[in-house]
Amino acid sequence: MSAIGMIAGGLLNVALVLLAAPLAQGILRKITARIQSRQGPPLLQPYFDLLKLLGKEDIESGEVPGMQRFAACLSLATILAVACLVPMGFFAPMSGAGDIILLIYLLTFCGICTLLAGLAAGSTYSLVGISREMMGMIALEPLFAIALVVGALHTGSLRLDTVLQGSAYNAEGFPWSGILMLGVMLLSFQAFVQRVPFDIAEAETELMEGPLMEYSGPKLALFKYAQMAKLIVYSALFVTLFVPWGSELRFPVGWLFFWLKLSGLVLLVTVVAATHARYRIDQALRFFAGLMGVAFVALILASYGH
Amino acid sequence: MIAREMFEQFKQRFGPRIQRADLPSDSRLFVYIDPLSVRHVCQEIFRELDARYVASIGLDDRPYSGKFLVAHNFAFDKDHLFCGVLAPLPAESPLLDSISDVVPAASWAEREMRDLVGIEPVGHRYLKRLVLPDGWPEGNHPLRKDVPWNSVPAEFDPAREFQFDDPPENCTVVPFGPFHPTLDEPAHFRLYVEGEMVRGCEYRGFMVHRGIEKLAESVMSYNDIPMLAERICGICGCVHNVAYVQAVEEAAALQAPARAEYVRTIMLELERLHSHLLWVGLACHIVGFDTLFMQSFRIREPIMWMAEKISGNRKTYALCVVGGVRWNITSEIAAEMRQVLDKLESEWRPVVAAVSRDKNIQRRTRGVGVADKELVKNAGLIGPVARAAGVDIDCRRDHPYAAYSRLDFDVITAEGGDVWGRLLVRMKEVFESIKIIRQCLEKMEEGPLQLEIKDELPVGRMGLSSVEAPRGESHHFVITGENNRPRRWRVRAPTYQNLQGVPAMIKDQQIADMTISLGSIDPCFSCTDRLETIDLRSGSVKVWSQEELLQLTRKEGVEK
Amino acid sequence: MSLLSKLAETLICLKTERATLPYPAEAKPVPEKFRGRPIFDASKCIGCAGCANNCPAREILVYDVCQEIRIIKYLGLRCTYCGRCADVCPEKAITMSHEFENGTDKIGDIQQRLELFMSTCQRCGRCFKEPSVLEQLKMKGYRFDDLQNERWIFRSQARLEGDAVVDDLKIEMD
């Protein structure tokens, strides 16, 4: 793959994510509103929200403003970097640049940006928020790592383009580990994209937005964008890992199929978010601990070839 | 009869300590006690006779009798009796033994008496400012008759702040309020948190104290005050409106016409419906379940339209004048109301079923914010908070007013005293309210809506009224006066009592449960510390500290 | 299983119509009894000041320029739309309209000022027919509320400067 091709492909992926993320958010809000029997905001509202925030004055508040700005930029940057590594309906443009270990690191890094944000703000509420975020991350990130490792075990390679092609099901017999990991990821997906019932760190009514408390204006816009982009990127990862059927068809059918599957996942996230109450941190941790147990079983099965 | 029997009991127990007694009706007993015996009498009434503490009122009676007067009101719910223990205090030294060690529920009322009237509760353990701002000069007691209603004290000290206690060991301080997304009104809970658990709390409130009682005594008139009263609360305005008017009617020995009583009952129950539906939605929002929040509000909307059709406004009904009501319920409105109630009932049943089965909500609310029967008795908790703990009290049945004595309904209780119990109680009370309104529509008689009041109201008479608000018992105390206005009007809203129980409810609970515990009493209470200014010309930035900010804002306010 | 009950809940929610309207594109009509902004009809007003006396917010000011002219001014700042003025007006000159979109940056849009010709009126208050003794006119005589600063003055004067008081009327001072 030529260098120009890689760069162009990377930029295309980034542009797709940047364009699609607010639209997905808009669809999510409209569907939530319909379930709640109300009109809801216009579909394009998140674009306007971001524009509005970007146009505001960049005020410095919080303990360490430089770190706050760094955390905001880094959070969006990491997600967009992940977008370059993930196939969005065609091959991943920069798959030669790294392997799945890089992917895991980048995703964890994105979570760390929220921690940095909360620390830089320095208020009591943001510190409580980041302590919850940390606890959540410790319980959550390994689940995704195990999903990728199961795929790596089956295909015998750490390369991105081999692992991210539904490799979880590449077992010799019936793909037990794949099915288990599919279940685990489905149940914990809400937590990865920070939606109810697992949006504990940013619980508005309890913690006044937690780590994001001292953010306003353009810095908040970057964080919000990163959150919207997370939905698209994680959904893309999930689809390529666990729902690969149909994507290998030729462009444009394969591409359309991919986006259809992605939209289906976004719809599922919306409906689950609209119909559940938020969990408390200890209840959520117990839930994740249970899922972790299942994931380990899947890992063991995968290492034995199932 | 009941009042007389109780009075006989009192005579046996307290004998010579009673200076005088008034028995204006069968359900009211006022005994005047020598100030030195008040504590003993209150202790016996609260503990031995097992009465429920209601309210304490301090008033400046110096222009009329030359003394200050303190009233401690108790309720004998099973006997349908209110009993007031009154003590006249000499004008030069208004001191009274504090009853807050034997009746913990009186703690705030005594602090309020101290702030506003200057009656010193001797032996009270927590004598900090309750109502007035911290900078208010000592010795200036607004509710005294010699203080004009629109005076601004010159010695206001803006630098003086509320001194919080030290936190217990190992605890960090998490400030909750005055600005918080969950609370609609400002209140400050200073939580002492160890990890995720709350170990203690200190409360500073009354940031929106508006001086309503002073206004009513000084410049308003009898029929102006209901409009003021209904703005005491943002949701249960009708309750205060009706309670005040009933207290005045009792003092003046007026009886509102029967149709007016039915109309009052219907509007009170409509208010209960919309308040409970709102609360269930709010509780779900606090635990993060926005869909049920929206659905509750959708189901509640027809009630608001109904109220608007009858009274002209969704919430401030402006319903009562002394002697009657202003709005009629015509037969078209009655027919429409029946339809609305049928639809409401049919939509609410599945919601109750869904919430009762929902494990998610139960996990967030079971065992949280527990108030057991002992706390209910000691802190004087009322309303759904008490009923969820299994304490069977309800003013509509125990001290009937308006048309309730002619109606048939159940009082819902639950066991456990936690937030889940309160949720269940409020959800089921919706059905009882619907039943009551249907009965009123059947039984309502034709007749006038207002009394023709030909004579001025008698002066110096006492009247009490307790109305069951959606949050609990709202108690009004009125002494009629000259110039077409009352001499004293005291409002004891239900949240006033229930808030006193909150520190005990949130102790040793998780900080995440703080908001839902606070929200479960259905609070209706009517500093950020930096401001940054940027000089556009020089580009320099100045960050203001709290002290400087207070100086800046308060100085300007006092100068006006 | 809780997933099924959640699906059932979702279906219930989807079956109902949307409860909100895209206001202000579409607005709900107000009911007949709605208490909006009060409108004062100067042609019916007799200048008795019963409305001013019974306004709980003291938002109606009264000023006697001279024997013949009385100004009644509705301030609209703290009006609570309670409708007491409309209740007590003996001539039904005040109606509670259906206007609730009263937000403006010029308070003059809401304020109403009536200049009334009072002829030989001594402001004795007998033309005000109070519904009950609790609404009686407290301030009879000439009134000089502060129109400039929009404040209610709590004392009235029994007479204008330089005018004789008519003997057979008992005029009360507050």
Describe this structure in words.
The complex is a heterotrimer of chains A (about 300), B (about 550) and C (about 170). Chain A has 11 helices and no strands. Chain A has helices at about 5-35, 45-55, 65-85, 100-120, 125-155, 160-165, 175-190, 205, 215-240, 255-275, 280-305. By secondary structure, chain B is α+β, with helices and mostly antiparallel strands. A 5-stranded mixed sheet of chain B has the order 1-2-5-4-3. In chain B, strands 8-9-10-16 form a 4-stranded antiparallel sheet. In chain B, strands 13-14-15 form a 3-stranded antiparallel sheet. Chain C is of the alpha+beta class and about 170 residues long. Chains in contact: A-B, A-C, B-C.
SSE layout and pairing:
The complex is a heterotrimer of chains A (306), B (560) and C (174).
Chain A: H1 3-35, H2 45-54, H3 65-85, H4 100-121, H5 124-155, H6 160-163, H7 176-192, H8 204-207, H9 217-242, H10 253-275, H11 281-303
Chain B: H1 2-14, E1 18-25, E2 28-33, H2 38-48, E3 52-60, H3 62-65, E4 67-76, E5 81-90, E6 95-97, H4 107-116, E7 120-122, E8 172-176, E9 188-194, E10 197-204, H5 212-218, H6 225-229, H7 237-251, H8 258-286, H9 290-311, E11 320-321, E12 324-325, H10 331-357, H11 359-365, H12 373-379, H13 384-388, H14 395-398, H15 419-443, E13 462-469, E14 472-479, E15 488-492, H16 494-500, H17 502-506, E16 509-510, H18 514-520, E17 531-534, E18 541-544, H19 546-559
Parallel strand pairs in B: 2-5, 6-7
Antiparallel strand pairs in B: 1-2, 3-4, 4-5, 8-9, 9-10, 10-16, 11-12, 13-14, 14-15, 17-18
Helix pairs in contact in B: 7-8, 8-9, 8-15, 8-18, 9-10, 10-15
Chain C: H1 2-15, E1 38-40, H2 50-53, E2 60-64, E3 69-74, H3 84-88, E4 94-96, E5 112-117
Antiparallel strand pairs in C: 1-4, 2-3, 3-5
